[in-house]
Fold this protein.
Amino acid sequence: MKLKTFGLEDIRDKKVLMRVDFNVPFKNGRVTDDARIRAHESTLRKLLDGGAKVALVSHFGRPKGASDPLLSLKQIVPDVERAYGVKVLFVEDCVGPKVQAALDALSKGEVLLLENVRFHPEEQKNDPAFAADLAKPFEVFVMDAFSAAHRADASTSGVIPLLSSFAGDLLVREGEMLGAVSEAPAKPFVLILGGAKVSDKIDVVGNLLNKATTILIGGGMAYTFLRAQGLEIGRSLCEADRLDFARRTLEEAKARGVRLLLPVDSVVAAVLDASETKVVSSTEMPSDRMGLDIGPQTIELFASALKDAKSVLWNGPMGVFENPRFAAGTRAICQAVADCTRAGAVTVIGGGDTASAVREFGFDDKFSHVSTGGGASLEYCEGKALPGMAPFEIK
Ligand code: AMP
């Protein structure tokens, strides 16, 4: 998806409200990972270089529509300053006279950070009067928070029609890369799905089944598919109400000539934190065990199916990767997809848990793109119009 972005003439010396996602992991008064802050650097740099006066607006945690000092964005000011190398002035509200006054007093090279927008209950109701208050001191709106773009909030979508609005670099990149693997992907296109639940991925399957050359299904969701084929899955995850969907998907893939591959073996254990694990074939799952990772033969099967891919989209880990005993499958698929990137394929990792996994295993720079949005990247791949993104689409 190609998005309308800004040129120098659009923002020169203008007052700009920029929606970012500073909902960073925060423990004991410290930001533990500032990747989300750094993700907006390029957009902010362009605005500052163009002489714009910029105020950053974001949510932080779930304050339930009321002020909460533990969820004040004031706490992350030093991290924002460090990440961007600029002076950050904090404003104790995101609307009203304080914002206007701070904006008037702002000097070149300084940036405003507004207080947590979710301290106002109107934000998540996309209240038009609140959106108008947010927009009031500004001339331009730049939407850069892809991870919040699937939400129709005042600060992600309500302000768009009220100002001269543009997509920021991060939003543009997400549209470009997720678009490359979900709109008209270069073939062979391999879709890799995993994670806990079939129900979370149903609409992605629905949208991409007719575009994929091959679909690889691992993780907890694979067992509902194996059960749908009549196999014993022991105590592995199974969504009884999704068995019909799994059966239909298997039939439809066959009818359309899409190769759909399921695990041929699994790493199993009696309980999640078990010290004793073993590898069993998918046709020999013991009734008192659960599948917690794809096995070595599945790794080989999936890796060989990825070999000639021209585009790859991966959403959902292959096993309970948080436990090192069940991480080998996800790590091996990281390597196989990284090999595709090196061979010239476009490779995109959906956000959320898959992004955490690839980062944990040190693969985050081995793909064409790792999405910064969990829910947003899923909805994009489902073919849905995201309220904070669709208005910028250039058809
Ligand atoms: P999702 O958010 O749907 O992508 O799910 C990610 C979660 O799925 C991770 O926390 C994994 O631990 C979990 N997961 C992956 N494979 C399995 C499995 N075989 N059994 C149970 N949970 C799994």
In short: The chain has a mean pLDDT of 97. The chain has two domains: 8-170, 177-381. Residues 195-197, 200, 219-220, 237, 291-292, 316-317, 319-320, 322, 352-353 surround adenosine monophosphate (CB under 6 Å). The longest helix spans residues 328-342.
